[in-house]
Design a protein that fits this description.
Layout lengths: L1 E4 L5 H8 L5 E5 L27 E5 L5 E5 L1 E6 L4 H10 L4 E4 L5 H11 L8 E8 L2 H4 L10 E6 L7 H8 L7 E4 L7 H4 L7 E6 L4 E3 L2 E2 L1 H12 L8
Parallel strand pairs: 1-2, 1-10, 2-5, 5-6, 6-7, 7-8, 8-9, 9-10
Antiparallel strand pairs: 3-4, 11-12
Length: about 240
């Protein structure tokens, strides 16, 4: 199961979170977000310059072996200008573009054609779809050219059982992540998701101890619950 941690911008916190074996780190590039990452000098000392945590993680297993732990950098945009998105893909070496607004399928095609292969070899485009009932899930049909979907639960309800029925309405080919203010206690419920295209979860505010700073202890327990105990801290 993939775990994406979004809303990050502190170098040391990013290092600590990526060391847990998460799969994706999300940076918010829309100004209305309180976790907004502004354009910075490439030598500013914060992302994307965070030392040896970039892209490849080498961790020690209990047997002393080394395993590779890759993670992907996701830029989160909302109704942004294409040129702004392209600039951040280059400046932050993004692996994925997450579109959180009302972007069209035409924009997805244009972004891909502009970026690949002249600027980057490949890019994964994730389209966010906010759902409050099963009908909303079918909005994916507008974006058949997306590589992945993020189905974001828009209802504030401690009983998430209804979410299962809504997700079962999805019949597309692209994999999807789910989001919905998840926190550590939601791990057991997340493990009940059995849809064949379900690939993982996106978390953010449910693990914050301060704005844009994640609680690594809580995240570690969450990762262990979803992935098992084969994660390792630096010695």
């Amino acid at each position: 199961m993939k775990i994406k941690v979004c809303g990050m911008r502190d170098s040391n916190n990013i290092k600590a979170v990526t060391a847990l074996g998460v799969d994706m780190i999300g940076y918010s590039f829309y100004q209305s977000s309180p976790r907004y990452v502004s354009m910075i000098s490439s030598r500013a000392g914060i992302i994307p310059d965070y030392a040896d945590t970039d892209d490849i993680r080498l961790r020690k297993s209990g047997a002393g072996d080394c395993v590779v732990r890759p993670f992907l950098k996701v830029g989160v945009f909302k109704d942004d200008m294409p040129q702004s998105i392209l600039t951040r893909v280059v400046n932050y070496s993004l692996d994925c573009i997450q579109l959180d607004g009302e972007e069209s399928s035409v924009m997805i095609d244009n972004l891909r054609r502009t970026l690949c292969p002249d600027i980057v070899d490949d890019i994964t485009i994730i389209k966010t779809i906010r759902i409050s009932d099963a009908a909303d899930v079918n909005l994916w049909r507008r974006y058949k050219n997306a590589d992945m979907f993020l189905f974001k639960l828009s209802r504030d309800d401690s009983d998430k059982s209804f979410f299962l029925d809504e997700l079962n309405a999805y019949d597309g080919d692209a994999p999807f992540l789910v989001a919905g203010g998840f926190c550590e206690k939601d791990a057991e419920w997340i493990k009940t998701l059995k849809h064949p295209k379900f690939e993982g979860v996106s978390v953010s505010t449910g693990f914050e101890k301060e704005l844009a700073l994640k609680d690594t202890d809580a995240l570690e327990r969450f990762v262990i619950q979803l992935k098992g105990n084969n994660i390792f801290r630096d010695e």
